[in-house]
Amino acid sequence: MSEALVRAIAEEAAGGEAAKGDLEVARRVLRDEIRGLESLASSLDRAFALVVGLIAAAKGRVVVTGLGKSGHVARKIAATLASTGTPAQFVHPVEASHGDLGMIGGEDALLALSNSGESPEFADIIAYSRRFKIPLVAITSGKGSTLAEAADAVLLLPQVAEACPLGLAPTTSTTMMMSLGDALAIALLERKGFTPVDFRIFHPGGRLGRTLLRVGDIMHGALEVPLVGPSAPMSEAILVMTAKSFGCVGVRDEKGRLIGIITDGDLRRHMNDRLLARLAAEIMHHEPKTIARGALAAEALGVMNRSAITSLFVVDEECRPIGFLHMHDCLRAGVL
User: Fold this and answer.
1) Which residue, 65, 166, 172, 313, shows the most beta carbons closer than 10 Å to its own?
2) What residues contact 303, with CB distance under 8 A and at least 6 apart?
3) Model-level pTM?
């Protein structure tokens, strides 16, 4: 694309009549879909709780199925369910008729999406669910449709116009389906008590996985923690500090509790011919910064940044050191 053409398009987008028309269309579509969602929210009743209970009771997977645009939405719903603690998979209704019915087990639950509820391609999968008593949930706007009549529970979409001016392209209807799938996933998540730790198990990669890393995932273990007793001479403390290579050494009492820290900066401040003969308790700083192993690594990095330090001792409930975390550990793990 030439530079002149790009400039012309940019100028048109900045203030041309076509640009104004495009914005009006965009706002109209969004408002139409918002009205659809508001209508859907108002129409929800006890059937929603019934569906959540039915899916939660399934010992197997939630098999989500749909055709066309509803099929694309069904794939997304299956992915959202699976990532939030409800095992799920997508099965295409046509492929189901050619062998993929074998993917649906007796302990599964079926979630079928069809705006009309009359797609003939659903015939085999509906019959299979009835034959083997597999719970069937329908999301449809067809109240008396074949799918709705066959289902054990129905989440009925309100009769609202599509955002498409021709009334043909699935727009508002698929937005409502997608949002209803999100609502099901989150209701199941909350019913099961799904936690951020559980969430990270299913999202180990990317920025999300790094954000949910725990201190215990990246810390150095107990054997690597630099520690001395309060009565240890500084000559010993310096040897431990050098051997562990973290630029500091912790001081713990006779019960194993962390009571102080000595950093390489402390060594420079106290440097004289008597330093090696002094005791660790004389040089240490009291109340060193610590973190729990279950804390988010991002939280630990925040503590280090706010305190202008580069490391933290990881302690248990009794303030006994069980690990060590350096800022470089966070950065290597991609925690920012």
Assistant:
1) 65
2) 289, 291, 312
3) 0.65
